[in-house]
Amino acid sequence: MKKVSRYEPSDHPHESVKVFADYQGDIVDRCDVVVVGSGPGGAVVAKELAEAGFDIVLLEEGLAWDAPDFVPDAGAAMVRMLREGGMRATRGNVFMPTMQAIALGGGSVVNSAICARSPAWVFDRWASLHGTELLTGASLDGHYQRVESFLGVEPTLEKVLGERNLAFKRGCDALGMSSAPCPRNAPGCKGSAECFTGCRNRGKASMDVSYVPAAIRAGARVYTSVRVDTVMASGRRARGVQGKAVDPRSKKAVYDVRVQARVVVLSAGCMATPVILQRSEIGNENGQAGRHLRFHPGTAVLAVFPDLIRPWEGATQGYHSLHELEDGLKYEVLWSPPPIIATRFPGMGVQFKDQLARFERSAPFDAYVDGADSEGSVTGRPFGLEPDIRFTFGAKDVKKLHRGLCRLVEISLAAGAVEVLPGLFGYKPVLRSQADLDELRAYRMKPTDPVIAGTHAFGSTRMGNNVKTSVVDVDGRCHQTDNLYIADSGVIPSSPAVNPMLTIMALASRTAHILAARI
Amino acid sequence: MQNHPFSPLLSAALSKWKGALDRHEKQIVTACTEVLLPAGGAIAVSGLDAKVVETFEQLLANVPPMTRMLLRAMLQFVERSPWAYGYSPRPFSRLDLSQRHKVLERLMNSRFYLVRTAFLGLRTVLTVAYFRDENVMQALGATPNLDPFTQEKTP
């Protein structure tokens, strides 16, 4: 594998990206490989294959948002860059909000840039559960390294941590829990805490400023505002994709899009890729696309300190603890715009506003569970409506999350918090002491009690060696097809333990290198 | 509101389709805002002064149709909740402030998950709109700072 140098930041990262205004009629193109989706999976495949000399077309449904477009406003960011205006939620035994981006660069534009490697035992677990023995931690090391080098992944620098992250470290240290600065693809981070609304400093190496421009430099053609509906096929062979160019203002599908290719790679994300397969006549022979959807269900507490924290300063998620990772729990510092964090605050009216005013002394910390006991599905709906996402939050995971919640309270108190808001329905809104913590430990939490979020989604087109229970093999190729591949979070069969972005990119890099040898 | 080159009836239908709140929906959002984000307290600015209703309308206009439908359904649910709960035959937007407070409190503390989730959703959307106001952010001290660790902090 060739060594890579770090990406080149540019003031005009989206030059040569085709936008809706460029389209004068139906789009017809032909290439070696068409990649659907420009998030962490698709962007990596497009760049690697373009640099290997293949003719690449990269299609993206969202727009190319750039630093001057970003505004530190939660509402605007959600409406512009998130599916369903940021109000997407699962149905089932819980309504769990889950955010999927729709933008050039996908989720990397709005996430906290955490780039953590999954430990080797994760791949051993996948092998025993899904028959993916060929995919070992060691076999992925080179790809992890390659992505990390290109994106400039490094642990969050101390100078941009800020009080919020340092408070979490203090709490973990006091309890003897291991913790560390999060490794992130944010080499230019200045600690402005604006990851969620798009980094106005261009400090984050999101896909739209790193992998996509590199793919374009290597000859890839990138079309935005293009929604792919189906994969064209004859027998076991995919022939290309077809869809529509969608006017970003009116949201109307205006032009037909048809791209013929020798190989099709779907990287539209774990909610959109299975829907494309469900509509197509290839890749879903056993009806597995969209099943086995997994999440990392998480919750957060708000720790209120006696002194100023100024939580809006410092790396968005700069510190984490992997202390209980093997038990299925990860702890992190959290930040997102104040109105989103405000869901933790109890009450309404003046009481609610008084709580909001305590923000400057507060720090949110979150925990998520591996979701081993929970599962869902995603199914397409007719007439272009958003997909139906279902999820059942399993009892063992609820119990585990309760343990995580107690741990967060413990970390907060150990860090010096005078109050902790657990955000539990029907439970005391504020905890202040060890006695309160002991009481919380004895509490029997129901799945509907905490304010939860589906932090990471994966598994809807999972890999495995059994064609009846999985969608792709360990190389990312759809079973029973010759040339249809998937490279996004959907292929991850069960929890990657840590935040999945780096693993998605490493798997995509692996798939790209396998493809380069096969085409 | 944008002018449409159609008859007034069709224009009204189109503006509704595009997401603008109708008069009745505006009344419901206003009634909710008055209770959830009143003037006073640690952040003096009221929700109405922070133009929460107008921002809500903008958000509504820009979300996908199904999300818009859900938000509209949520408003109608709140409007009918006094009757549904046997609290009052009058719709929510016609109750006085203290009665509205009691109704929303019931929704917030409802033992029905769906009901209190709807309340939390409503409060979150209104809070998102509230925080769009610069005065609110200033009251919090949370004015955006692109380079907080090298620039001098303002007192």
Walk me through this protein's architecture.
Chain A is built from 12 helices and 19 strands. Chain A is an alpha/beta fold and 519 residues long. Chain A folds into 2 domains: 20-83 and 101-114 and 116-149 and 201-290 and 458-518, 3-Layer(bba) Sandwich (FAD/NAD(P)-binding domain), CATH 3.50.50.60; 91-97 and 157-198 and 293-455, Glucose Oxidase, domain 3 (2-Layer Sandwich), CATH 3.30.560. In chain A, strands 1, 2, 7, 8, 9, 10 and 19 form a 7-stranded mixed beta sheet that branches. In chain A, strands 5, 11, 12, 13, 14, 17 and 18 form a 7-stranded antiparallel beta sheet that branches. In chain A, helix 1 (40-51) packs parallel to helix 6 (211-217), helix 5 crosses helix 10 and helix 10 runs antiparallel to helix 11. The longest helix of chain A is centred in the C-terminal third of the chain and has 20 residues, at 395-414. The mean pLDDT of chain A is 96. With 155 residues, chain B is mainly alpha-helical. Chain B has one domain. Helices cover 59% and strands 0% of the residues of chain B. In chain B, helix 2 crosses helix 3 (52-62) and helix 3 (52-62) packs across helix 6. At the A-B interface, helix 2, helix 8 and helix 9 of A face helix 3, helix 4, helix 5, helix 6 and helix 7 of B.
